[in-house]
Design a protein that fits this description.
It is built from eight helices and four strands, in the order ααααααβαβββα. The chain is an alpha+beta fold and 187 residues long. The protein has two domains: 102 residues, Peroxidase, domain 1 (Orthogonal Bundle), CATH 1.10.520; 78 residues, no CATH class. A four-stranded mixed β-sheet has the order 2-1-3-4. It is elongated.
Length: 187
Amino acid sequence: MSVANSYAKALYEAAKDAKASSDELDQIEMQLETFVSLLKQSKEANVALLSPLTTAKEKISFVEEISKKYSFSPLLSRFLTLVAAKGRVGLMKEIREELSTVRLTLEGGISGRLVAADPMSDSDVSILVKAFSQKLGKKVAFRVSTDPSLLAGMKVTVNGVTYDGTLRSQLQKLRDYFVAGVSGTHA
């Protein structure tokens, strides 16, 4: 278990202990995403929260100001303060990703990976989520990314099984078929 996973699990369990509803958990995830985006986009926030020259007390103060400004939930504000005090703000992107995975897993779902040659629309991803959820009988959530080297199509990995519908894979199968056919005629 990674450090980010441990923090994500602690946040999820604290929310559940506080009797947070599904909507409140959604809100925490969105607010955490806002915090991660702020770190990514703001040079000031990056320097203040990631610099070794900034003291833990200054980092905590900065996080408290951000929490007030963006009206973060009290639970998330306390969590971010803890992360800042422990010097783990650099892991926030990973913690955010792990929170979704932890939540999904503990609520009986499974996480999958969807890699497409071209960017996919939200509606296309939703169709795949619905299809795989029905096929597996569990809620499925995908981490979506693009990889132009696939040429066309997509590759889906769920529960350790990969469904490869990429052009690159089809061309490789065709190549293997012809190589096997050519070597078989000379034998």
